[in-house]
Amino acid sequence: MCAHYEITLNDVSKIFGKKLALDKVSLKIKKGSIFGLIGPNGAGKSTLTSLLATLSLPDEGTVTISDLDVVSQVKQVRKKIGITFQEPSIFTTGTAWDNLFIAGKIYDMNISKIKEQGEYLLKEFNLNQVSNDLVGTYSGGMKRKLDIAISLLHKPEVLFLDEPTTGLDPESRNTLWQIISNISHREGTTIFVTTHYLEELNNVATDIALINNGKVLDVGTPKELINKLAADHIEIHYSRLNSSMIQKIDEYVSNMIEVINHKIKPTSLTIISSKGQQILSKLLKFLIRNEVEIEFSELKQATLNDVYLSNFTEKGDK
Ligand SMILES: Nc1ncnc2c1ncn2[C@@H]1O[C@H](COP(=O)(O)OP(=O)(O)OP(=O)(O)O)[C@@H](O)[C@H]1O
Ligand SMILES: [Mg+2]
């Protein structure tokens, strides 16, 4: 119905026995976006991914991909999507090209198309030098790259990645994300990804949904979620203050509307605020005006990890 959205879910539920794995999930995922789904173990991420990838059926609600219904138009949907599972699904006893040809046949592609797209992808994923080596000799990172390259062989409009970077070292994770986001930008591929490495999403995701107990708790850009659900942390240390100055500072901070919480001591002040940078510079000016001798100040800006911790862990947990 709407050209702007690639994937739409309306009140989608999935039940396993008595377990409600997805509970009336509604989402709209924009064409060409990199959409991240985050949540703790058992939240429903893989259930949602496999449902979108037409590998299981919803018990309630509707899902469309590129305006096609995933239940009644499954064949057409499958032509438009690619999926990479957490466990590599490649043949280690063959070469990269063997794997590409097998996948190409499954996708019903002719040999010249497989060669053309295969060469492009092997180059993009830096595997062209090893394309005729046995996959069994590849490192974990190379296997993962090949797995993703194969899922892009038939030029899908949507790529589903369930925990694509698990087990990779930080450099390999960065490289993989660069390649995936380059391809998404160049080809307009919509990427739906689940991951536990939240900081990766901060750099690449256009939108993120938080899921827990099968329910979507919030959706937004990384920045929106950080601003809404996490806060910056300010710490200022100064030479010992007398009680009247403590009271003066306490009053000043209490009147700052952006301050969520604060704690003042004779030698330090800590503040929780969604606008850390602004609060810190206002405060430093105020303290200097009042001739407070500042020893040091620190601003810890909120990250997606803080969003995760404040939503998915017990209060007070470290
Ligand atoms: N085939 C199944 N049969 C029964 N219960 C299932 C099945 N698949 C998933 N579940 C249950 O549904 C819930 C969601 O599981 P799911 O695998 O989607 O979580 P997840 O968010 O992917 O977790 P993880 O981060 O550990 O991969 C869990 O309680 C799980 O036990
Ligand atoms: Mg999972």
UniProtKB/TrEMBL annotation:
Transmembrane segments: none annotated. The lineage of its organism: Bacteria, Bacillati, Bacillota, Bacilli, Bacillales. PANTHER family: LINEARMYCIN RESISTANCE ATP-BINDING PROTEIN LNRL. Pfam families: ABC_tran. GO terms for molecular function: ATP binding; ATP hydrolysis activity. Keywords: ATP-binding, Nucleotide-binding. It comes from Pueribacillus theae. PROSITE patterns: ABC_TRANSPORTER_1 (PS00211), ABC_TRANSPORTER_2 (PS50893). This is ABC transporter domain-containing protein.
